[in-house]
């Protein structure tokens, strides 16, 4: 080293740092080397003094990692894989067989008693039939009582709540499947709890209704049909005045027996024509003015041809015509008529003292002119 070697002048922040000689520059240069304090702190640090991945590792048999961190991960991975194979082996995972475990001197006791080659089942061991019976027992196979299972301090929650002495079923917990057929009697129903939605259609028959229970307020409008009314049940007092309209009366339902006398006026007749004091109702239901007839020839079914004394009207099968009388043309020609000195204004009367005479109308039957 030259006697003229230079020194770098330190600053106030370089306390504890070291000078190093630089041969190429022939000078002492301030170098950032660790102090003793820093070295002590580093060597005494127990955690993460050096990252495992920063420490080199020379791989051996079965390893390929070149740093400590990777080598540790590789070792853990291989160990987990080997353990999975081991635990998944359900046969001879340790290569053992019964001969390795049981010898001729091994003694059994309990369900199987004796030694190898001379084993017997315990005398009180259950048979398959007994096991089946026990397993299928749905009542109380172990003879337990509620006292064995519950104490006064036992509490419940869920469908039931409370303690063993105050056990209660929670609201809305009893479903249809839990109720036996015909189990709900009238005594089980609270007052006014059965509404219309709980009653099935057509379920309320006559036997379910109390006498006089169906009032007018219970019957919906237009719900009483003919089939619901007994024969002769609707009397006059049941019908309000002026309530039977034409639409309520069936065709041909009003017969002559239903009509009181003198209750059909001219206005109720369906005849054609005009009714008046000078018309009459013909058989064809027509109001007609009568034709004035002053003599026989005015009649449409009478024909008079050259009338002569003592002729009479005879019907020839088509009309009435004049013709000579035959047989008994006079009253006194009749066997039961006796005329003596007939005079104007005389009448035929019935004489009760006439032996063998037939009954003759006694008043105004024939007037002799």
Question: Overview of this structure, please?
Answer:
With 369 residues, the protein is α+β, with helices and mostly antiparallel strands. Helix content is 12%, strand content 12%. It has helices at residues 36-44, 68-87, 98-101, 128-135, 146-149, and strands at 6-7, 18-22, 27-31, 107-108, 112-115, 118-121, 155-156, 160-163, 168-169, 280-281, 287-288, 302-303, 311-315, 320-324. It is elongated, with a radius of gyration of 70 Å. The termini are far apart.
Brief characterization of the structure:
By secondary structure, this protein is of the alpha+beta class. The chain has 5 helices and 14 strands.
Radius of gyration over all CA atoms, rounded: 70 Å
Widest beta sheet: strand line-up: 1-3-2
Gap between N and C termini, in Å? 207 Å
What is the number of helical segments per DSSP (H or I, 4+ residues)?
5
Main β-sheet: number of strands, strand sense, barrel status? 3 strands, mixed
Overall pLDDT level:
76
β content, as a range?
Answer: 5-15%
Low-confidence stretches: 357-369
Chain oligomer state: single chain
Q: Estimate percent helicity.
A: 10-25%
Q: Give the strand tally.
A: 14
- The topology string of helices and strands comes to EEEHHHEEEHHEEEEEEEE
C-alpha geometry: elongated
Note the topology.
Layout: E1 6-7, E2 18-22, E3 27-31, H1 36-44, H2 68-87, H3 98-101, E4 107-108, E5 112-115, E6 118-121, H4 128-135, H5 146-149, E7 155-156, E8 160-163, E9 168-169, E10 280-281, E11 287-288, E12 302-303, E13 311-315, E14 320-324
Parallel strand pairs: 1-3, 12-14
Antiparallel strand pairs: 2-3, 4-5, 5-6, 7-8, 8-9, 10-11, 13-14
């Amino acid at each position: 080293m030259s006697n003229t070697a230079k020194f770098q002048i330190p600053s106030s922040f370089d306390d504890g740092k070291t000078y190093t000689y630089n041969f190429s520059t022939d000078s002492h240069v301030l170098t950032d080397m660790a102090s003793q304090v820093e070295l002590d702190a580093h060597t005494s640090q127990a955690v993460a003094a050096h990252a495992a991945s920063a420490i080199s590792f020379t791989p051996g048999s079965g390893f390929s990692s070149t740093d400590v961190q990777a080598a540790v991960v590789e070792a853990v991975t291989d160990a987990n894989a080997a353990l999975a194979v081991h635990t998944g082996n359900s046969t001879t995972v340790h290569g053992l067989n019964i001969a390795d475990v049981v010898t001729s001197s091994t003694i059994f006791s309990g369900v199987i008693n004796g030694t190898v080659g001379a084993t017997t089942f315990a005398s009180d061991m259950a048979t398959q039939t007994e096991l089946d019976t026990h397993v299928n027992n749905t009542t109380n196979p172990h003879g337990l009582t509620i006292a064995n299972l519950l104490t006064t301090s036992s509490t419940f929650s869920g469908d039931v709540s409370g303690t063993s002495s105050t056990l209660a079923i929670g609201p809305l917990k009893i479903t249809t499947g839990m109720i036996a057929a015909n189990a709900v009697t009238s005594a089980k129903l609270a007052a006014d709890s059965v509404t219309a939605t709980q009653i099935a259609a057509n379920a309320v028959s006559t036997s379910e209704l109390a006498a006089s229970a169906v009032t007018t307020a219970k019957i919906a409008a237009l719900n009483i049909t003919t089939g619901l009314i007994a024969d002769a049940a609707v009397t006059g007092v049941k019908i309000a005045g002026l309530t039977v309209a034409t639409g309520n009366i069936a065709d041909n339902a009003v017969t002559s027996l239903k009509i009181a006398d003198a209750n059909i006026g001219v206005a109720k007749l369906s005849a054609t024509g005009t009714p008046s004091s000078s018309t009459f109702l013909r058989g064809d239901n027509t109001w007609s003015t009568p034709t004035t007839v002053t003599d026989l020839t005015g009649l449409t079914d009478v024909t008079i041809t050259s009338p002569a004394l003592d002729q009479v009207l005879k019907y020839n099968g088509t009309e009435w015509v004049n013709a000579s009388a035959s047989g008994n043309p006079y009253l006194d020609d009749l066997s039961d008529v006796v005329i003596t000195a007939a005079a104007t204004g005389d009448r035929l009367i019935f004489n009760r003292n006439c032996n063998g005479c037939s009954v003759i109308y006694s008043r105004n039957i024939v007037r002799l002119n």
